[in-house]
Write a structure and sequence with these properties.
The chain has helices at 9-23, 29-34, 38-46, 51-57, 68-82. By secondary structure, it is mainly alpha-helical.
Length: 90
């Protein structure tokens, strides 16, 4: 694929698929920028989208996805370390 002048959801998807094939995983925003694909990263947000949208499009889990079980486990760990339920950011 040559240089893309107009980024759309479709062209972003195509480019992300190429990048995923190249590096073997879905790239983070930082990786896109370090790899010289800052235009892809910018286009995602200029089109009113985000990285999570494309991870979902490729049926990939969100990074650091929170759920009730994870939140409870982290709160229990913090509570054990500080001896009380946390009520503010330390």
């Amino acid at each position: 694929m040559g240089a893309i002048r107009i980024w759309t959801e479709e062209t972003i998807t195509i480019k992300l698929k190429e990048i995923m094939e190249e590096i073997g995983k879905f790239p983070s925003g930082g990786e896109l920028q370090r790899m010289g694909y800052s235009s892809v990263y910018s286009a995602i947000y200029l089109n009113g989208l985000n990285i999570a949208h494309f991870r979902n499009k490729f049926n990939l889990p969100l990074r650091n996805e929170w759920n009730e079980e994870k939140a409870i486990a982290i709160l229990r760990d913090i509570s054990a370390k500080i001896g009380e339920f946390p009520t503010q950011i330390y």
